[in-house]
């Protein structure tokens, strides 16, 4: 095989990787997805499209639906179900975001700000339920039991991962392994499903299907690791979240696991007070970042993200080197480059 | 046709209708459903079965899954998918209950008590999501796109109804018509779907399918109306809820719509203060009940429930008078009799 699997990773430092080649390749499809999303979030109960619009319009790079579109293209699928399913993936993601917004009284006191502040917890939950149901309606329209199975399994795994995350919150005993279990479920599972769908639509072999699923899983883990780094971020502004959110919420992410594990007794006490007991004061976030720097916790996390990104690229090697494969390889670099 | 359609309604006053004939008829099936529910709510993340058990074990008469079991029997279905689908209906119902539990800070101050108090809003939402996803996994296992369509449409309608209910909350402009729209969606839709599934499993005609759907819809509306009456209840204890909950939460139900519409200017001011502004003091609930009595609001609501229950019975007339049809007819009386 003539391609150098890591060429994009090396390039990432020099020529900035971007989403633009992928976006150009699936431009028409993505436009159709956006139109379908807008169309299918309509409802006579106006609060539903209003709240959904706030969330969906405000956001993000549509990486998950892009995976579905690109993997369908990679598998030379020629129908139109990938549009519907990409919209469905975006609806599941949006529902998850809305439900993530829901908070308890205690955390509300800590001043966490998000969409629920405008409409309240109840509206966030119920509109999330609507979007989630809508996702299933779209899947049913496509009519593939195989795909319904992938996405209903993914949904259950995501919920399970979210519950697990709730349980690891403020818990400094959380191990690297447990953390990976959380993000593999709550984040990477939807990436995995989004990519696998393309192979099913293209009626590909089990090997190709598993390769795309694994590609999605690995890029999903890399994405979450980068996201966790950005939360203690330096010069970069994090999409849709503020630097320090994870810290304020007592979320135990890999940089924390690493810094805690390698910290002195005094540092461990700091982490216990700030994250374990959520007893935070002015300057604690900067102190947390300083401790992370001292132990290279952010670098180590990014290194780990790089490893998963490379594994994602490796999974694509069984496909011929088409422009869409190249664009997916660049995507893996793009994800990691967000924190560079 | 020799049967007197309203015989059970008339009997309701004398011989107490009960669930016992229905429970006896589907005893084995219901046992299988309960076992399946317990089995499929298991998860390595222990909080999930723990919270689910709290909810599912604590409760209810399993009326929704009973509808699926009974309608499958009525349609002489002989497979085992009705067990899976009845469990699925119970999971959807449980997810809805968990999400109903989620409250906003403001309502928490009003002292509403429910499951979220033990585990928090976030856990209620996420475990609800898990149960909802589990429901879809069970449906996919059954593999009928027709049934997947019924249940995903029902889920979207339920969420839409819940959002609509949120919007009518504390709003005394809510009309009888709007109220019916709310309960047809949030409550009756799952009853409708639960009953319709039986006809699909039994491969019945569109007419029979529509009759069972309509039976479910009508009994669902009757059920909710009775539930609303019980919330201002007299001697009866309401299952799983306390008398006065709706009042405390500012929910606008039919008895309120009726009493407000027929109330004097002074009474309208009372309803505006207590429900519109949620400015309640000692004795207000009793005063509310007194105003309802004055205008026969509870009687009128029960009368309406009776009308829907009779319509539910009428829908069954196209089926031969087997023991299961008789038991379903008794069920409609049982539902109404809860408030007698």
UniProtKB/TrEMBL annotation, chains A, B:
Cofactor(s) the record lists: Mg(2+)
InterPro entries given in the database record: Isoprenoid_synthase_dom_sf, Polyprenyl_synt, Polyprenyl_synt_CS
Coiled coil: none
GO MF term list: all-trans-octaprenyl-diphosphate synthase activity; metal ion binding
Keyword flag Transmembrane: no
Catalytic reactions of this protein: 5 isopentenyl diphosphate + (2E,6E)-farnesyl diphosphate = all-trans-octaprenyl diphosphate + 5 diphosphate
GO BP: any one term: isoprenoid biosynthetic process
Broad EC category: transferase
Keyword Ribosomal protein: no
UniProt EC number: 2.5.1.90
Annotated keywords: Magnesium, Metal-binding, Transferase
Family to which this protein belongs: Belongs to the FPP/GGPP synthase family.
Function noted in UniProt: Supplies octaprenyl diphosphate, the precursor for the side chain of the isoprenoid quinones ubiquinone and menaquinone.
Protein name: Octaprenyl diphosphate synthase
The organism of origin for this protein: Caedimonas varicaedens
Lineage of the species this protein comes from: Bacteria, Pseudomonadati, Pseudomonadota, Alphaproteobacteria, Holosporales
Gene behind the chain: ispB
């Amino acid at each position: 095989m003539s391609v150098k699997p890591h060429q994009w990773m090396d390039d990432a430092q020099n020529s900035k990787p971007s989403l633009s080649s992928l976006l150009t390749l699936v431009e028409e499809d993505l436009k159709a997805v956006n139109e379908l999303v807008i169309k299918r979030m309509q409802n006579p109960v106006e609060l539903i499209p209003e709240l959904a619009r706030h969330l969906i319009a405000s956001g993000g790079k549509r990486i998950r639906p892009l995976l579905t579109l690109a993997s369908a293209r990679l598998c030379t699928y020629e129908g139109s179900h990938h549009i519907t399913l990409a919209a469905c993936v975006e609806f599941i993601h949006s529902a998850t975001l809305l439900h993530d917004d829901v908070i308890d009284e205690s955390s509300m006191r800590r001043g966490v700000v998000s969409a629920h502040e405008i409409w309240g917890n109840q509206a966030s939950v119920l509109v999330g339920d609507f979007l989630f149901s809508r996702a299933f309606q779209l899947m049913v329209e496509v009519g593939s039991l195989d795909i319904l199975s992938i996405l209903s399994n993914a949904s259950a795994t995501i919920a399970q991962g979210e519950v697990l995350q709730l349980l690891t919150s403020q818990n400094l005993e959380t191990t690297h392994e447990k953390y990976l279990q959380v993000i593999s479920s709550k984040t990477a599972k939807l990436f995995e499903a989004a990519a696998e769908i393309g192979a099913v639509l293209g009626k590909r072999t089990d090997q190709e299907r598993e390769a795309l699923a694994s590609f999605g899983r690995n890029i999903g883990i890399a994405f979450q690791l980068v996201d966790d780094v950005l939360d203690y971020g330096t010069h970069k502004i994090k999409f849709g979240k503020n630097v320090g959110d994870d810290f304020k919420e007592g979320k135990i992410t890999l940089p924390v696991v690493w810094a805690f594990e390698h910290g002195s007794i005094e540092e461990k006490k700091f982490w216990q007070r700030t994250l374990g007991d959520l007893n935070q004061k002015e300057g604690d976030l900067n102190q947390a970042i300083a401790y992370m720097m001292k132990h290279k916790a952010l670098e180590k996390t990014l290194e780990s993200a790089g490893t998963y990104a490379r594994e994602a690229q490796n999974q694509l090697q069984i496909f011929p080197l088409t422009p869409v494969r190249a664009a997916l390889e660049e995507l893996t670099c793009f994800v990691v480059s967000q924190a560079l």
